[in-house]
Write a structure and sequence with these properties.
Helix 7 links the parallel strand 2 and strand 3. This protein has two domains: about 140 residues, Rossmann fold; about 160 residues, Lactate dehydrogenase/glycoside hydrolase, family 4, C-terminal (L-2-Hydroxyisocaproate Dehydrogenase, Chain A, domain 2). The longest helix has 22 residues. It is of the alpha/beta class. The chain contains 14 helices and 14 strands. Helix content is about 45%, strand content about 15%. Pathway: Fermentation; pyruvate fermentation to lactate; (S)-lactate from pyruvate: step 1/1. It is an enzyme of class 1 (oxidoreductase). It is found in: Cytoplasm. GO terms for molecular function: L-lactate dehydrogenase (NAD+) activity. Belongs to the LDH/MDH superfamily. LDH family.
Length: about 375
């Protein structure tokens, strides 16, 4: 009936614009539709069908007209597994340096995970990463360039180191194989402690080539070493050069033979540097390096910011292919008389593909002996692991 009324209305004198549209089939249809709309809706003036359709468009559709379908996949995605204090320190350090175009967070604690993700998203105006996502499993990590492993159990009072390691191995068994499937071409950067042993476990579980499995190792130990040397000399630590190698822990090895400022080797100025005979007691600098983590944990309950900044430094070198030298944990079998498959920190050149080269340190006999001792200490624990 409404349609009939619309048709009967067409017999009346119409405006010139309407009469012109009637000359084509499409024009006649448009006039019929307008007649219907006048009867079923409160239209006070003639409106075209296109104008009515535009009323149903979303704000986004009214605001933005697409010219080209852009590729939306991330080009430089980073995933962090574990949103504890260390994981979130890594996250904020990476975000504030603009090192990724997508950050993914993974953890089994759903509420904390969502809260941490939202907290970062709400601050996204202040950094340049456009996308932050989270999930309980590895699906959220798909196509990552770097996956950072910070998840792990904390040592309980009276717990042996071997038992702690075994618990963390069991955690990695639930994480690493799925990560390897989701991002088969990524670099795995292990931060969880004991980092050297867990980097070895990650290498075995992932099936990745050794150059793509990296432990954060003594990158932080070396930074502490340089800071403490600089403090003693009154020189900015960036101008103090020195390396701590071996285990990230009690058996780490300070390379006193290479410590220098502006190319001036301190050992040449003070031959007993770092030895028991040293009357200036420079050896205490390394002791402070080893004990500093324990002191921070005693004072605030955990370490976070220094390791987070250290990890971001490694990520920067990897993502930007800077080929900088870092003391990171890698497989050292065949070096310095080490015959077992252990991971220890030595100076490595890092780039897009992970560890591309190692620097052959000119160690003195004492330093080489301590490095071998560090390897033996790790192997004593590693050989009894079950995975």
């Amino acid at each position: 009936m409404v349609f009939a009324q619309a048709q009967s209305g067409l017999g009346r004198r119409q405006p010139r614009a309407v009469r012109m549209r009637e000359q084509s089939g499409l024009g006649r249809v448009t006039v019929l539709v307008e007649g219907l709309l006048r009867r079923v809706g409160p239209l006070n003036r003639p409106l075209g069908w296109c104008r009515e359709i535009s009323k149903m468009a979303t704000v986004k559709e009214k605001l933005i007209e697409n010219f080209f379908k852009e590729e939306t996949s991330a080009q430089n995605k980073v995933t962090i597994v574990g949103v504890g204090a260390v994981g979130m320190a890594c996250a904020i350090s990476i975000l504030m340096r603009g090192l990724t175009d997508e950050l993914a967070l993974i953890d089994v604690m759903e509420e904390k995970l969502k809260g941490e993700m939202m907290d970062l998203q709400h601050g996204s105006l202040f950094f340049s990463t456009p996308k932050i996502v989270s999930g309980k499993d590895s699906r959220v990590s798909v196509n990552s360039k770097i996956v950072i492993i910070t998840a792990g159990a904390r040592q309980q009072e009276g717990e042996s180191r071997l038992n702690l390691v075994q618990r963390n191995v069991n955690i990695l068994k639930m994480i690493i194989p799925d990560i390897a499937k989701s991002s088969p071409n990524c670099k795995l950067l292990v931060v969880s402690n004991p980092v050297d042993i867990l980097t070895y476990v990650t290498w075995k579980l992932s099936g990745f080539p050794k150059h793509r499995v990296i432990g954060s190792g003594t990158n932080l130990d070396s930074a502490r070493f340089r800071f403490l040397i600089g403090s003693r000399l009154g020189v900015n630590p960036t101008s103090c050069h020195g390396w701590v190698i071996g285990e990230h822990g009690d058996s780490s090895v300070p390379v006193w033979s290479g410590v220098n400022v502006a190319g001036v080797c301190l050992k040449n100025l003070h031959p007993s540097l770092g030895t028991d005979e040293d009357k200036e007691h420079w050896k205490t600098v390394h002791r402070q390096v080893v004990e500093s983590a324990y002191e921070v944990i005693k004072l605030k309950g955990y370490t976070s910011w220094a390791i987070g900044l250290s990890v971001a430094d490694l990520v920067r070198t990897l993502t930007k292919n800077l080929r900088r030298v870092h003391p990171v944990s890698t497989m050292v079998k065949g070096l310095c008389g080490i015959n077992e498959e252990v991971f220890l920190s030595i100076p490595c050149i890092l780039g897009h593909n992970g560890i591309t080269d190692i620097v052959k340190l000119d160690l003195n006999s004492e330093e080489e002996k301590h490095l071998k001792k560090s390897a033996d200490a790790l192997w004593d624990i590693q050989k009894d692991l079950k995975f």
